[in-house]
Q: What sequence folds into this?
């Protein structure tokens, strides 16, 4: 069994190598990491580097959702301006809540009625794969030069739909019988989990706001934000609420209230740089995790069900994006079709879905089929949709050279 030091050293070396290759080849850093992970998982390096230990820690220990996602969420929401969030909040939250429900229902019905998969496995798979992957979406849109409101729309959906997906998955898993599931009970449960996360996030953020008034040095302020991130997640989860929502709300409040009122500019730069680096490390771990979990031999063996599942996921995403955004407006204006297309292509699946399917009990019917479909769809989604989205964004939203005042260069 390799030591933790070897695993950490290998992870840092792989991340550094992927960064260098990405900058030299001008290829997406994320896809390179996924391919590194696939290569390692299919070779003898898998046992040398302790891939099984990494999986036991991330999935069995619940570290992926509890340790890797919070930095990504906080760093993103901390940098979202409230004015832009308010402009896109309605369509973004519709996609993140109603959109995930629609995708789950449409995907589940397609698998159940068309492919003839049993009822419970159909809807479990649909709930697992319905939320877009936070790490993937945030990484792509961080590099793309999009209109700020479009970028905020996609980032907000990615941040909040994880909570919806996890909640629906948990409700289905505990009911174990979709046909007897009470829609009223499910709606009440979802509202309490989501709403409770909002309340906890606000309360923790308010506490951090008060603490920020009595400190001035960057290190103390950074520690306050670390406590805010993991404190809000832990408290909300312990109370049975959404820790993901709590972290997102805490990040929005911190970036739009605390930073603007109490934190000194130099301290703000230190805090933002810290979370930028932390989010980069978490992002790297997420994509390497996707690659390590991908078994190409298994995907080839189950290519037909995976292809059908990918079709179901595409139809489900289409059924949620275009109707919801087609009836939404931003600042009184209809949402452009190009924005809807970006939202459609931006429905990339990844690490969260893999973490959820790995947590399925062994007694779940058709568990192996569900696992193969999730792994296959996530891999195809990243390898296929990622480049398609990047290409579409470059074509529809070309970068403009801005002439800036000389004073901004100093």
A:
């Amino acid at each position: 069994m390799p030591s933790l030091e070897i695993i950490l050293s290998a992870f840092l070396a792989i991340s550094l190598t992927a960064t260098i290759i990405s900058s030299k080849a001008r290829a997406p850093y994320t896809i390179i990491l996924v391919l590194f992970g696939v290569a390692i998982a299919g070779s003898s390096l898998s046992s040398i580097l302790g891939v099984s230990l990494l999986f036991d820690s991330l999935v069995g220990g619940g570290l992926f959702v509890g340790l890797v996602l919070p930095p990504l969420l906080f760093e993103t929401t901390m940098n979202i301006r409230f004015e832009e969030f308010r402009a896109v909040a309605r369509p973004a939250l519709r996609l993140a809540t109603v959109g995930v429900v629609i995708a789950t229902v449409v995907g589940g019905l397609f698998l159940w009625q068309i492919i003839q998969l049993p009822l419970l496995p159909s809807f479990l798979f649909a709930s697992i794969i319905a939320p877009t992957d936070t790490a993937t979406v945030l990484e792509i849109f961080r590099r793309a030069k999009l209109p700020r409101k479009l970028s905020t729309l996609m980032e907000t959906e990615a941040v909040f739909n994880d909570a919806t997906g996890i909640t629906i998955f948990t409700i289905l898993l505990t009911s174990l019988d979709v046909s007897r599931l009470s829609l009223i009970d499910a709606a009440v449960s979802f509202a309490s989990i989501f709403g409770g996360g909002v309340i906890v996030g606000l309360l923790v953020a308010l506490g951090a706001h008060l603490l920020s008034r009595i400190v001035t040095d960057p290190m103390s302020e950074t520690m306050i934000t670390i406590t805010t991130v993991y404190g809000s997640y832990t408290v909300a989860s312990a109370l049975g609420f959404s820790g993901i929502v709590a972290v997102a709300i805490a990040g929005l409040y911190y970036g739009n209230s605390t930073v603007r009122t109490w934190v000194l500019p130099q301290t703000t730069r230190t805090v933002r740089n810290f979370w930028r680096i932390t989010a980069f490390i978490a992002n790297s771990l997420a994509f390497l995790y996707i690659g390590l979990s991908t078994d190409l031999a298994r995907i080839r063996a189950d290519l037909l069900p995976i292809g059908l599942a990918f079709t179901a996921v595409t139809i489900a995403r289409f059924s949620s994006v275009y109707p919801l955004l087609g009836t939404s407006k931003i600042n009184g204006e209809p949402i452009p079709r190009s924005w809807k297309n970006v939202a459609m292509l931006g429905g990339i699946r990844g690490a969260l879905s893999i973490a959820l399917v790995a947590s399925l009990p062994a007694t779940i019917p058709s568990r192996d089929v569900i696992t193969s479909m999730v792994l296959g769809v996530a891999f195809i989604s990243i390898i296929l949709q990622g480049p398609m989205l990047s290409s579409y964004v470059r074509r529809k939203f070309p970068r403009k050279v801005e002439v800036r005042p000389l004073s901004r260069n100093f």
Observations:
- Strands lie at 329-330, 333-334.
- The mean pLDDT is 84.
- The chain has 19 helices and two strands.
